[in-house]
Design brief:
There is one protein chain. This protein is of the alpha/beta class and 365 residues long. Strands 9-10-8-11-12-13 form a six-stranded mixed β-sheet. The chain is globular, with a radius of gyration of 25 Å.
Length: 365
């Protein structure tokens, strides 16, 4: 197989998948010595154009992993098991064999990109965790080429305010809060679309916060079910409430579940979505126009709640022609346009890394 003339001749190991433990981790080897590396460190021949299941062995003839390897014009892709030790050990082997590797995710600026905006799209594509995120991101290079220099100041400001791609690339944290026995865990299970939280009619059933990913019509969120708040002498329950306070403080959105059969509590925060639960029972108060009336146990009213959650984070998600931004460099360009001044490419910062994981904090604007 002839080498691809567009590829650099220098050796390099590139982690194509996101850093961190996963089921699989793919490392691409490029450069003039790929075949020599495969011949030395694989227990069987790697034939071009075929998937080969082989053992990778180190310089001491010890097996590191048994990945699937594909040799192609661009180099060789090694699909490892995604444990941190395996990836780290293999990258160490690559470095020792003359293939520099920094252990970060792929740098598409080295290949497969026509221009800078496409490079930024490729850099972040591995972070898209839903089909919606992938589709919107893939559409952006063409939109930026066609429209970026034609935006009015108002359109630039609208693009700056639209954080849709940020949230689709780094899922927001949504915490469910409220008094004990208000129905938080039942509501969480409806949003999870499976039973993740234990429920019962007894207050204090949830003794610790539960977090899992949930998808709401294309928006993936980190949903946190917190223990109910109530006076208690139980040290375990009290400690659980204290620990969950940190999770609540770092949430991007709060859902405050209130029980209409109990006195209405004060809102947890001004920006919270208020859910008025148990409306099928005799009520002590009536939901307001902005509240979401629900019967969580029967999944009644949850469609409206899902729509409100989605609307908090996504702007016109079905519009595939809207220009959106997801890097610091792009925001700098839009800020120049929003100020009605021409952008200065030479002074625009280099492409920023992927937006920070929102497992703890909301991303910086």
């Amino acid at each position: 197989m002839e080498p691809d003339p567009t590829m650099p001749g220098e050796n390099r190991a590139i982690l194509l998948t996101a850093p961190g433990s996963a089921a699989l981790a793919v490392v691409r080897l490029v450069g003039r010595d790929v075949d020599a590396f495969l011949a030395r460190h694989c227990d069987k021949p790697i034939r071009p154009g075929r998937c080969v299941h082989a053992e990778v062995i180190d310089e001491h003839r010890e097996v590191i992993d048994d990945p699937v390897i594909v040799r192609h014009n661009a180099g060789a892709d090694i699909s490892l098991h995604g444990g941190a030790w395996v990836v780290s050990r293999f990258l160490d082997l690559c470095r020792g064999a003359g293939f520099p590797a920094d252990g970060s995710s792929a740098d598409p600026r080295r290949f497969d990109a026509a221009d800078l905006i496409e490079r930024e799209m490729l850099e972040h594509l591995i972070r898209a965790v839903s089909r919606l995120g992938i589709e919107l991101l893939l559409a952006q290079p063409r939109i930026w080429r066609d429209r970026a220099t034609k935006l009015t100041a108002g359109e630039a400001r609208a693009a700056l305010a639209d954080r849709t791609l940020e949230w689709l690339l780094s899922p927001p944290r949504v915490a469910i809060v409220g008094d004990a026995n208000a129905g938080k865990s039942t509501l969480a299970n409806r949003l999870f679309a499976e039973d993740r939280s234990i429920t019962s009619d007894s207050p204090g059933t949830t003794r610790d916060w539960v977090e899992a990913m949930a998808e709401i019509d294309g928006l993936v969120i980190r949903l946190i079910d917190t223990p109910g708040t109530r006076p208690t002498e139980d040290p375990i329950e009290r400690a659980a409430m204290e620990l969950s306070a940190e999770e609540v403080a770092g949430a991007d959105l709060l859902i405050h579940v209130m029980d209409v059969t109990a006195p209405r509590p004060a809102p947890y925060s001004a920006g919270a979505i208020i859910v008025a639960n148990k409306i099928d029972r005799p009520a002590l108060w009536q939901p307001g126009p902005d509240d979401v009336p629900t019967v969580a146990i029967a999944d009644q009213g949850t469609d409206r709640l899902r729509a409100l959650i989605r609307a908090r984070f996504l702007t016109d998600p079905h519009d595939r022609t809207r220009l959106r931004c997801w890097t610091t460099r792009q925001r700098a360009i839009l800020q120049c346009l929003a100020a009605a001044a021409p952008p200065a490419p030479a002074s625009v910062p280099a492409p920023a890394p992927a937006p920070a994981d929102h497992s703890r904090h909301q991303p910086s604007p």
